[in-house]
Protein 1
Amino acid sequence: MPLSVLVVGAGPGGVAAAVQLHRLGARVSWWDRTGDIGGLLRNARAVENWPGMPVGAPGSACCDRLREHASTFGLQPEPAQATGSCESGTGVEVARVGGAVERVDAVVWAIGTQPLPWALAGQALPVFHEFCEIPENARRLLVVGGGEAACDGALHWVQRGARAVLA
């Protein structure tokens, strides 16, 4: 009987894991909280380090390639969010939002980075954890962080006519 594996996350790492496990003959279940492929790559203004993609390709184009590649193997993540897991005598039990439990032989946690909680006393401004969640008509942004993702997102919105401040 083939190994059953749950892949949690559908960014580049989750796609690679799901495809390779499928190719090796595993029964693959695949969850992503959005049900879509891409993860944080969806936010990328320009991807310059992906072999086979034109230098500076937008993250959305890379996500399209990942979707195409996964669909070649009949793979599509299910919209589901894991809430916890525990080892049992026969493998791993993973609970999802809503209470359903999936029993598998192994789990690949390909969940990438997680934003830190952000709260200010008396906060009245909306907080977004992904640049693609920001309303199209946004004209002023405060981007908290100075890493590559923060800088890339700020540049993306500046190119769209917004004013972005990095803090």
Protein 2
Amino acid sequence: MSATFTEFLREQAEKRKSRDTDRQRVLDDWIEALKRLYAQMEGWLRSSDPDGILNIEKEENWEVEEEGLGKYSVPRLDIRGLGRWVGVVPKARFTVASAHPPQKASSGRPIGRVDITNEVRRFVLYRFPSAEGDLWLIDDQKNPPSVLDQAAFESALMSYLQ
């Protein structure tokens, strides 16, 4: 093997190792953000559904494939009740969204997308970085996106459960 080929292989291996480390860091951050989002949603549902009418199931290994990250597993939520199903489904860590956060709440592009869907309609959640942590916007695709809070989340769910 020639010295230049050996050097090439070593350089490529080092680049690959660096990319893999960066990829894992991005995925770890994304998975933690999803866990925080789901914990918030589950808290909202516990306070609004003390009778346990809705059943919340977490699937830990939902497969997503996207350019730049390849195939990976993330958690997702399934909400069942009143004869209906609504999924809280991660779609992408890297997104080409056109959503913009409220003034001064955050800057930059979204760093994640999650759909609240029944596979016929969807509300799109966009994650933005902010000084206080994650800022999630909800987009009903009819009106400008707004900050995701308990009222917006419950309104989205009610539209599916009617």
